UniProtKB/TrEMBL annotation:
This is Uncharacterized protein. The keyword Transmembrane helix applies. It comes from the Bacteria. The chain crosses the membrane at residues 21-41, 47-68. Keywords: Membrane, Transmembrane, Transmembrane helix.
Amino acid sequence: MKKYNIDENTEELKYKRGRCLFALSIVLGFVGIVLLIVGIFVQNTKYGTPLSVVGAIVSMTLAFFLMYKSYSDMMAYESLKMEREYDKHELYKLKSVCKYEVKSKLLGAGFSEENEYLKKKKFSYLKDSITYYFRMVDTAKVFGSVERYIKEFELMDREG
């Protein structure tokens, strides 16, 4: 079962197009610089300098336009690549602070919901099992709420 519900071929073509446009914009930028340098060497001719300056301006403008057009494709590609890389690693550090995204990542990592907590039980050689509990809380005052939630957790009926 695929984890990502996107059409891989369409997305890959879009990303390839973005990379090609970005590479073309870099080439056009270098062409513009070369045309400016050529304009310095042909400044004694009648049309050499104006043509090289106009060519440099046109190629630099096209380069910036192509960079602008490929920016969204390149950023989407980097974002998807980073997301896939993070999903490959074991869950030990959360990169996001969005409550719903954290919850979906924890549920995807094998946690289950129980009494407003996300719970995961793992086998341990030293003990029978270790159970991890997570709870996400929206609060402005940390000190009072932490103590209150610890007391609630200690009074909670837990299975296993």
